[in-house]
Amino acid sequence: MVRHGIRTHRELGEFIGVAPATATRLLHGERVPKEETLQRIADRFDIEITTIRELAERPLGEPSPFVLPREFDQLTPEQRDAVRQMCRVLLRSGGHRRVTRS
User: Fold this and answer.
1) Residue range 80-97: average pLDDT?
2) How far apart are CA 19 and CA 87, in angstroms?
């Protein structure tokens, strides 16, 4: 980090685009980095994302957290409930759904 002129958690946070408190938690292993944070770190330090994922103990192939696109914020409360219910059904079925044709 010193090679990049970074000496404090605040400077690291600014460099990778997170709050200083988040940078501190990441460095102390108190927070699991989000996928986009891992990608920013890889980009800013010019390191392969696979290397960053290994260092963060998030090997390639491990599913990243599911985050709905921002456009979903436009859904009504009823629509959000419908999406939650669909997710519950998928989780209960193990992600597999039988399709029956008549």
Assistant:
1) 77
2) 31
